[in-house]
Amino acid sequence: MLRSGKKLSRKAIFLDRDGVINSSIIINGKPYAPTKLSDLLILPGVIDSLSRFKSHQYLNVVVTNQPDLSTGKQTKESLEKIHNYLYAHCPIDLIKVCAHTAENRCECRKPGIGMILEAARELEINLVESFMIGDRWSDVEAGQRAGCKEIFFIDYGYNEKIPKGKFTVVKSLKECADKVFGSCQLN
Question: Domain containing 170 — which CATH number?
Fold first, then answer.
């Protein structure tokens, strides 16, 4: 991928937010996003894993569907508080949000790749050297469609559609970091 005649050399770890960075709220086997800061819980090992990615020169880019904004279940102010907290406590370089519902059929909502492409343009990221990590079929499909080097699926056994195509199944973000960089600990 070239821009202005120069090769894009930056690489990224694209991450879903809920179920990857923080706990999802599970209701009847389906995951839901926390809608207020008091419900946000960063998952164990996330900060260390994100730090490992950064130490290997990867940008940490969150791409998250947040339809609760457009349905009125969450306010913009509440979402900003959650994201400000994540920026303050996790080594995250950028958070991209799609507020549309599935019925909107927009290209920014995963499995669409609009958020990934926008982040890649803004940060000059080479997608074929980047990874996608998610916990839902739409994350896997977005990573595949964007041409990411490898896609990791954190399988919680949700009661929903199963991803298709080529991807690696893991149980946590830490296991994903171990598969990419080996199981050695960060210094």
Answer: 3.40.50.1000
| CB contact at 8 A, 113 and 120 | no
CB 32 within 8 A of CB 24: yes
* 17 in any annotated domain: yes
pLDDT at 117 over 80: yes
List, by residue number, the catalytic residues.
16, 18
For the chain, what is the domain count?
Answer: 1
Q: Which of 100, 101, 90, 66 is nearest to 80 (CA)?
A: 66
Look up the domain containing 19 and give its range. Answer: 10-181
Report the alpha-carbon distance of residue 167 to residue 180 in Å, rounded.
13
Alpha-carbon distance of 167 to 104, in angstroms, equals 27
| 89-99 residue pLDDT tens | 999 999 999 99
Tell me if 179 sits within 8 A of 170, measured CB to CB.
yes
In a domain, 168, yes or no: yes
**Chain segment 68-113, per-residue pLDDT in tens:** 999 999 999 999 999 999 999 999 999 999 999 989 989 999 999 9
Residue 38 inside a domain? The answer is: yes
